[in-house]
Amino acid sequence: DAVKHWLRSMSQYHAVKYGSTKSEGVTLRDILRMSHPHPKDRAQEELFGWLVKGWDSVGAEPSPTNSLVWALEKVKRSTDEAEIISLVQKYKLPWEVVVPSVKKMTVGIRKALLEGMPYMALLRNLATMERHGVLADKEVVKDVVERLSKPENVRKSKQLPFRFFNAFHAFNGNQAVRDALTDALETSFENMEKLEGRVCISNDVSGSMISLASNRGAARYCDIAGLFAAALFKKCDDVVLLPFDTKVYHPKVSRRDSVMSLAEKVGMAMGGTDLAAPINYLIDGSHKVDV
């Protein structure tokens, strides 16, 4: 019943974005065929019909009820770059469905897709856009830099800091874009709570932390720990920074360093692991901390 209720409230945007029959595992088409929801009106009946059976052809005029579906079907059949760009811009077609649908991707189509690309997709596709020459256009670069680094956009995206770290290390192109990613990373820590008093920050830099946190990115466990240690270092007023493996280290750092450069200084991965090392250091040196 819950599935049926969701399907009956599904927008055509969701149908277009998630309705591919090429999807791995259970598809939206499969779910419709298993749950048999009753369409609430003619427009939804048409939408369900397209998801289950597909449309062999589309009319010359846009569908008055499911214009996104009509536009996507036109894109699939078109070989005219100008027509595809016009359809993408007019109907705000999601990049995920356009890329596998067009017969031949061009720089112009990629630029059109960039205009409506969500923040997370923009982060993930920077290297692809660079590779295909989209970022050779100075105006495009200017737009990308503004969208990436604008504090309001960073906050709305709710992306974790290591997402920006991954994007930075995956992208070796335009320096202005790399700088924008560094700025975005800094902004992503803005809402981190400030700890009062004297704070000891000890991030694990032992050899076991060198593994990748995900096979879909460049961030290692030591990088993620280093990012948060660096952010706390910049956020708190009085800090004892003690990266450790079997002993503690005293990296030369400054609050004027960016979070990215700080993370690189405190996020190395080396020897064994002694969780007591930073505690013993504080006790042996009579260093009093509040947190």
Structure overview:
This protein has 291 residues and is mainly alpha-helical. 53% of the residues lie in helices and 3% in strands. The protein contains 17 helices and two strands. Helix 15 links the parallel strand 1 (198-201) and strand 2 (238-241). The chain is elongated and about 80 Å long. The two termini are 50 Å apart. 33% of the residues are buried. The mean pLDDT is 89.
At a glance:
It contains 17 helices and 2 strands. It is mainly alpha-helical and 291 residues long.
Q: Helices and strands in order, then pairings?
A:
Layout: H1 2-8, H2 12-18, H3 28-35, H4 42-53, H5 67-77, H6 81-91, H7 95-98, H8 107-115, H9 119-124, H10 126-131, H11 138-149, H12 151-157, H13 161-170, H14 175-188, E1 198-201, H15 221-235, E2 238-241, H16 259-266, H17 277-284
Parallel strand pairs: 1-2
Helix pairs in contact: 2-5, 5-6, 6-8, 11-14, 13-14, 15-16
